[in-house]
Amino acid sequence: MDGHVVTDAAELRALVGEPTERAKGKTRPALSAMHLEFLARSPLAMIATCDADGNMDVSPKGDPPGFAHVLDETHLAVPERPGNKRMDGFHNVLTDPRVATLWLVPGRGDTLRINGRARIVRDASYFDRCVVKGHRPSLALEIEVQQVFFHCSKAFMRSRAWEPESWNVEGLPSPAQIAKAFAPDASLAELEEYYTGPGYAESMYRGR
């Protein structure tokens, strides 16, 4: 591997510079009206967790816009939906409750970052208000907000992520091909049918 390794904060600051006063002062300890409005439009979040040994995980969570259930200005809940049952993030939270989340609104370059401490909750009264397509969650990740702030648009401007004309997915292995690469005994035809047929979409809320 090539290059000089940066090992201390002073060198890092010398290379990058200091943040503006506006950037330093934008962090808040609770959700404001603007934060709530953004959450109400967001259908997608990334949730980062860490296990007791420091191994990291980032998991996407998606539902109709506004799926984050806000309990109060310092607490929100993310309903759990049917998935692959690995529960990597949940297992991490059992040993280290710290979480970092990134909330996105398609078409918007800015994102909302919410950091805090989480716990796993089952069968809470508000689960009745989290029903989607008949699915009432059995679990939710409740997050106690410690830091919240908006992140600027530059990454999305550089990547052109929301511009369809910039998308380039041709030639990528299909989900079925990826699945077969790690499960060679599986039938590719059956995997293609699963991922492209109605069964996969139907499993989003009823499970496999």
Question: How are the SSEs placed, and which strands pair?
Answer:
Elements: H1 9-16, H2 21-24, H3 33-41, E1 44-50, E2 56-62, E3 69-72, E4 75-79, H4 88-95, E5 98-104, E6 111-122, E7 139-151, H5 154-159, H6 175-182, H7 188-196, H8 198-206
Antiparallel strand pairs: 1-2, 1-5, 3-4, 4-7, 5-6, 6-7
Descriptive overview:
It is a single chain. This protein is α+β, with helices and mostly antiparallel strands. The chain has two domains: 22-158, Pnp Oxidase, Chain A (Roll), CATH 2.30.110.10; 168-206, no CATH class. Helices cover 29% and strands 26% of the residues. It has eight helices and seven strands. The N and C termini lie far apart (44 Å). The mean pLDDT is 95.
Concise overview:
With 208 residues, the chain is of the alpha+beta class. It is built from eight helices and seven strands; from the N terminus they run αααββββαβββαααα.
